[in-house]
Write a structure and sequence with these properties.
heterodimer; A: mainly alpha; ABC transporter involved in vitamin B12 uptake, BtuC; two-stranded antiparallel sheet; 11 helices; globular; B: about 625 residues; alpha/beta; Rossmann fold; six-stranded mixed sheet; about 10% strand
Chain lengths: ~300, ~625
C-alpha cells in the first residue's frame, strides 16, 4: 500500500513534467499542425540555463535569497531563456517554411532539434552535469499515514498543478484563450474574424517553451543529473501524453501527462523498470487503435 | 555488370530527360556516364584507400535504406520515423540465425527481408489508416520498442547493449565477400537492382496508386484505389528492403548493437528522402552521399558536425523545401510513363485512341431514344439505376440526412438541389461510400452497395467529382485521368516491377482510355501539365474526365458549374448533354438554375436533410414548398 502511494506520488511528479512539456506540444500542434520536435530540446535548454544560473551565481544567489530564492531565480531565468529561444526558433526555422507544406516543416523541426541539442553539447559538454548540491532544497514533510515526501517534490507537483490551472484558465476562459482555440480550429476563419495570428503564434511559442524550461529546472533539481539529449526522452513521452489526452486539446495534454506519469511509475514499481518505455509506447499504440481521438478529444469528421 | 549499368544509365537518363531540350538530355547522359564510370573504378583510384572504399560502401547502405524509406515516405507520403526498427530487425534476424543455426548469410538475406516485412505487416495493419502525425509518433514508438527490446536481451538472444558479434561473411560457394572492395561492389549491385525495380514500379499502376494516395487520400479512394491495400504493400516492401540492408550491414561489420538503430538513424533516413526530393531516385542517392560523406569531411570538427548538420537542414528547408533533385514528372511527356510500344508522337496515339474509342471505352447501355426537349415528361419511363432507401446520416446530434429516398432513372439527368447546408453533399458521400449511413440502404443496379468502400463503389460503376476540387495536384493531367481507369486493371506488385507483357498491355489500354477522355473534355493540350497549374475551370473539367475514365454507369457531379463563368458553363452543359447521349446516367448537385432547368430530366429538392419535392423541372419552379425552402415562408 505504501509502495503504491509512493509510486503514485513519483508518478505525479514525473507526470507533471510530461504535462508541462505536453502543453507546449499541444499548443504548437494546434496552431501550426506541426509536431515541434525541437520542443523537447527547449526543455533541456531550460534545464541547462537553470543549472548555469545556480552554478555561476550559486554563492551569491543562494546566500542572498536562500535556497528557495535560488530556485525561483533559476526557474524564472530558464523560463525567460527557453521562451526567447522558442520565439527565435519559430522565426528562423518555422515561419519561413510554413507555406512549403507539412513535410518540409517536419524536417525543419528535426533539423532544429538536432541543432539545439548539439548546440547544448557544444556549450556544456557531452557528459552528465549535476545540479549543485547546495542549491537543491532539502527537507521533507509527512503526509497521511507514514508516507514521507520531500518538500521539493511536493513543491514541484503543486507549482506544476498551479501553472496548469492558470494555463487552463487562460486558454478556456478568457477572450484571448478563445482566440487561441479558434486559431487552432481554423486559421483562416480566425484571421478573417480579426484575430491577429502572429500574436497567437508568439504566445504559443513563448509560453510553451517557458513551461518546458520550468519543467527542465525542476527535473534537474529532482533527479539531479542532466545531459544534452535529455529532452528527447521527455519530449517523446510528452507527445505520447498529448495523444493520450487528445491532440490539440490543452486540458487533454495535462491530463494525459499526469496519467502517463502515474502509469509509468506504477509499471516501474510493480513490473519492470527496463521495460517501462516499451509499456508506454504499447499504450500509445493501443490508444491510437482503440480511441484515436484520445481520452477527451472529439471526433472531427473530415470535410469532403 | 556493364549491362546493368547501361540500363540504369538509360533509365535514369529517361527519367530526367527534358521534354524539349535534347542537349540537356545529352549533357545529363554524359554526366551520368561519368558518374557511373567513376563509381565502377572508384576502389581502384590512386588516392582511394580502404577507408574511403568503406565510406563508399556506407553510401551504398544508406542509399538502400533511403530507397526503402522513399517507397513509404516519398511515394506514399506515410510519415515513418521508425524505419531503423526494420533495419534492426533485418540485422538481428541475420545475426541470431547465423549464430544459432549457422545458416549461410546469403540465404539469410531473403529471410531477413521476410521477417522485417512480416513484422511490419503485423504492426502496420492496425495503424496504417492513421493520419500523418499520428503515424509519425507511432512509428517512433515502434522504433523505440524494437531498440529497447534488443537492449533488454530477451531470452538471451540479443546480448543487450553489447550487441552480437561474430556474424559471418556472405559467400557463393568457395568465394566469400570479405574485402572492402568486394563489399563495395556487393552493396552497389544490390542498390542497382533495387533502383531498376523501383523505376519500373514508379511507372506502373502500383506506383501511380501510391502517388495518388500521397496527393489526396480521399480522392484516391474515390477513384478506385484500395488505399489500405496499397499503403500496406508500400510499407511491407519498404521495410523488407530495410531488412536486406540490415543483413548486409551485419555481414560487413560483423557486429551489431542497439546503438546502430537509434531514433537518430531513422531521422537520417527521413532526411535522405527529403533532402533529395520526395520520390526522386537520383535525389535519394545524392541524399545518401551527403549524409554519409558530410560528417566524414568535417571529421576534425567531430563534436560540431551534427550542429552544422541540423543548421543545414533548416536552411535547406527554408530555401529549397522540394529537395535538391525533385522528380520532374511533367518533363518526360508520355515517355516518362514508361509504357513500351506506344507511338512516339502523342497525337498519333490520341488519333488511334479516338478511333478505337468504341473498344477501349465500351459504350454505356445503348443510348436512350433521342429526346426532343429536355424535361419533356420522361418522369415515368426508364428503370431506376440508383435508389437510396430511407437513408439517415447522423453526426452527433445532427441529422444531416433523414429518411431520404432518392431515385435516379437510367439514362437521364437527375438534379439534387437545395439551400446550402441541406445535406446534399453528405448524401453524395453516402452514395459513394465515403460515409456509411446510420441507417437505410443504397441500391445500385439491383445491388445493395450500402456498406461498400469508395474504391469498390467506383468499380461497380459510380464515379464522382468533388465540390471542392480534389485532383492530384503534383501529377500531370494524363496521370490524373489514368487514376480513373485504375479499377479496371489488375497488375499487382511483381508484374509491375518487371513490366511484364500483360502489365504493359494493361498500361497501354489505360493510357488510351485516359487520352480519349482527356481529349473528349477538351484538355488534351494540357496532358503533360501538372494539374495544379491549370486554371480553376479546367481543373473542374479535368475532374470529370478522371471520373469518366472509370467507365461509370452513373456519374455523380457535385456542383460542376460552381465557379465557372458563363462561357465555361455553356461548354459544360454541352459536355453533359454529350455524355447523356453516350449513355451515361448523371446525378448532379447544382445551384445554377439555368443548368438545372436546362438539362435535368427530373429534380429532387432537399432541405434540412429531408426531401421536399421530386418532380419535373418546370413543375419544381412553381412548387410552393420549394419556394418556401429557398425564400422562406411568406408572412
Amino acid at each position: 500500500m505504501d509502495m503504491l502511494l509512493e509510486q503514485l506520488i513519483n508518478g505525479l511528479a514525473i507526470g507533471s513534467f510530461y504535462a508541462l512539456v505536453a502543453i507546449g506540444y499541444s499548443m504548437v500542434y494546434g496552431v501550426m499542425k506541426l509536431i515541434n520536435f525541437a520542443h523537447g530540446d527547449l526543455f533541456t535548454l531550460g534545464s541547462y540555463l537553470g543549472y548555469t544560473l545556480l552554478v555561476v551565481g550559486s554563492g551569491w544567489i543562494t546566500s542572498t535569497f536562500g535556497v528557495w530564492g535560488g530556485v525561483v531565480v533559476a526557474v524564472l531565468g530558464a523560463m525567460l531563456g527557453a521562451g526567447a529561444a522558442g520565439l527565435l526558433l519559430e522565426r528562423v526555422a518555422y515561419s519561413p517554411v510554413y507555406k512549403a507544406g507539412r513535410l518540409p516543416l517536419v524536417v525543419s523541426a528535426l533539423g532544429a532539434s538536432i541543432f539545439i541539442s548539439n548546440g547544448i553539447m557544444a556549450v556544456w559538454g557531452p557528459r552528465f552535469q549535476a545540479y549543485p548540491v547546495e542549491s537543491i532544497p532539502t527537507g521533507s514533510i509527512m503526509l497521511f499515514g507514514d508516507i514521507r515526501i520531500t518538500t521539493l517534490k511536493l513543491v514541484t507537483i503543486l507549482v506544476s498543478l498551479a501553472l496548469m490551472a492558470i494555463i487552463y484558465f487562460v486558454v478556456e476562459r478568457t477572450l484571448f484563450g478563445s482566440a487561441v482555440r479558434a486559431s487552432a480550429l481554423d486559421r483562416e476563419a480566425a484571421t478573417i474574424m480579426g484575430i491577429d495570428f502572429r500574436k497567437i503564434i508568439l504566445f504559443v511559442f513563448f509560453v510553451g517553451p517557458a513551461l518546458g524550461g520550468l519543467a527542465g529546472v525542476f527535473a534537474g533539481l529532482n533527479y539531479n543529473r542532466i545531459i544534452f539529449n535529455l529532452g528527447w526522452g521527455y519530449g517523446l513521452k510528452a507527445f505520447t501524453a498529448v495523444i493520450l489526452g487528445g491532440i490539440g486539446n490543452i486540458p487533454g495534454a495535462m491530463l494525459g501527462g499526469l496519467l502517463l506519469g502515474m502509469m509509468e511509475a506504477l509499471f516501474e514499481g510493480f513490473v519492470s523498470g527496463a521495460w517501462k518505455n516499451v509499456f508506454v509506447f504499447v499504450i500509445l499504440i493501443v490508444i491510437l487503435i482503440v480511441r484515436p481521438t484520445g481520452i477527451i478529444g472529439e471526433k472531427i469528421a473530415e470535410k469532403v | 555488370m556493364s549491362d546493368i549499368t547501361r540500363n540504369i544509365l538509360e533509365r535514369i537518363g529517361r527519367l530526367q530527360a527534358g521534354r524539349d531540350t535534347a542537349s540537356n538530355t545529352r549533357r545529363l547522359r554524359i554526366f551520368l556516364s561519368v558518374l557511373v564510370v567513376f563509381m565502377l573504378v572508384f576502389p581502384f583510384l590512386p588516392f582511394v584507400n580502404n577507408y574511403w572504399v568503406d565510406v563508399g560502401f556506407l553510401v551504398g547502405i544508406y542509399a538502400l535504406l533511403g530507397l526503402s524509406l522513399n517507397i513509404i515516405l516519398g511515394e506514399v507520403g506515410l510519415f515513418n520515423l521508425g524505419q531503423a526498427a526494420f533495419y534492426a530487425i533485418g540485422a538481428y534476424t541475420t545475426a541470431i540465425l547465423y549464430n544459432q543455426f549457422n545458416i549461410p548469410i546469403l540465404l539469410l538475406l531473403p529471410i531477413s527481408a521476410l521477417v522485417a516485412g512480416g513484422f511490419a505487416y503485423l504492426v502496420a495493419s492496425p495503424i496504417i489508416h492513421l493520419r500523418g502525425d499520428y503515424l509519425c509518433i507511432v512509428t517512433i514508438g515502434i522504433g523505440e520498442i524494437v531498440r529497447i527490446t534488443a537492449l533488454n536481451n530477451p531470452f538471451g538472444l540479443t546480448n543487450g547493449a553489447n550487441g552480437i558479434t561474430g556474424i559471418g561473411n556472405p559467400n557463393f560457394g568457395l568465394f566469400a565477400i570479405r574485402t572492402p572492395t568486394q563489399f563495395y561492389y556487393y552493396i552497389w549491385i544490390i542498390v542497382a537492382l533495387v533502383i531498376l525495380g523501383l523505376i519500373n514500379l514508379q511507372k506502373s499502376r502500383v506506383g501511380r496508386a501510391w502517388n495518388y494516395i500521397r496527393e489526396d487520400e480521399i480522392a484516391a479512394e474515390a477513384n478506385g484505389i484500395d488505399v489500405r491495400h496499397y499503403k500496406l504493400i508500400a510499407f511491407v516492401l519498404g521495410t523488407a528492403l530495410a531488412g536486406i540492408a540490415g543483413n548486409i550491414y551485419g555481414s560487413k561489420f560483423m557486429i551489431i548493437s542497439p546503438s546502430n538503430f537509434t531514433f537518430m538513424e531513422s531521422c537520417l533516413l527521413f532526411v535522405i528522402v527529403l533532402l533529395g526530393g520526395l520520390g526522386s531516385i537520383p535525389g535519394n542517392l545524392l541524399g545518401a552521399a551527403i549524409v554519409v560523406i558530410f560528417p566524414e569531411i568535417f571529421r576534425q570538427f567531430a563534436s560540431y558536425r551534427l550542429l552544422f548538420f541540423g543548421a543545414a537542414l533548416v536552411i535547406m528547408m527554408v530555401f529549397r523545401p522540394e529537395g535538391i533533385l525533385p522528380r520532374r514528372r511533367e518533363r518526360g511527356g508520355f515517355n516518362g510513363l514508361g509504357i513500351s510500344k506506344i507511338p512516339k508522337d502523342e497525337d498519333a496515339l490520341l488519333a488511334r485512341a479516338v478511333e478505337n474509342a468504341a473498344t477501349i471505352a465500351p459504350a454505356q447501355a445503348a443510348a436512350p431514344a433521342p429526346v426532343t426537349a429536355r424535361g419533356g415528361g420522361r418522369l415515368s419511363d426508364g428503370s431506376f439505376v440508383l435508389e437510396t432507401q430511407h437513408v439517415n446520416m447522423q453526426f452527433g446530434g445532427l441529422m444531416a440526412v433523414s429518411q431520404f429516398d432518392l431515385k435516379v432513372r437510367e439514362g437521364q439527368i437527375t438534379s439534387l438541389i437545395g439551400p446550402n447546408g441541406a445535406g446534399k453533399t453528405t448524401l453524395f458521400n453516402v452514395i459513394t461510400g465515403i460515409y456509411h449511413p446510420s441507417s437505410g440502404k443504397v441500391i445500385f443496379a439491383g445491388e445493395d452497395i450500402t456498406s461498400l468502400k469508395p474504391h469498390q463503389i467506383i468499380s461497380r460503376g459510380i464515379a464522382r467529382t468533388f465540390q471542392n476540387i480534389r485532383l492530384f495536384p503534383s501529377l500531370t493531367c494524363i496521370e490524373n485521368v489514368m487514376s480513373g481507369a485504375h479499377c479496371h486493371a489488375h497488375s499487382g506488385l511483381f508484374p509491375s516491377i518487371f513490366h511484364a507483357p500483360g502489365q504493359q498491355r494493361e498500361e497501354r489500354r489505360i493510357l488510351d482510355l485516359a487520352s480519349y477522355r482527356l481529349h473528349q473534355v477538351g484538355l488534351w493540350e494540357y496532358r503533360n501539365e501538372l494539374a495544379k497549374n491549370l486554371p480553376y475551370g479546367k481543373q473542374k473539367v479535368l475532374e470529370i474526365a478522371r471520373a469518366l475514365a472509370s467507365g461509370p454507369k452513373l456519374l455523380v457531379l457535385d456542383e460542376p458549374s460552381s465557379g465557372l463563368n458563363d462561357a465555361e458553363t455553356e461548354e459544360l452543359m454541352g459536355l453533359l448533354n454529350k455524355l447523356l447521349a453516350e449513355g451515361f446516367t448523371l446525378l448532379l448537385i447544382e445551384h445554377d438554375m439555368n443548368v438545372v432547368m436546362g438539362i435535368s430530366d427530373s429534380v429532387t429538392v432537399m432541405e434540412m436533410g429531408s426531401k421536399v419535392a421530386e418532380d419535373l423541372p418546370d413543375k419544381i419552379y412553381n412548387n410552393p414548398k420549394v419556394i418556401e425552402a429557398y425564400l422562406g415562408k411568406e408572412e
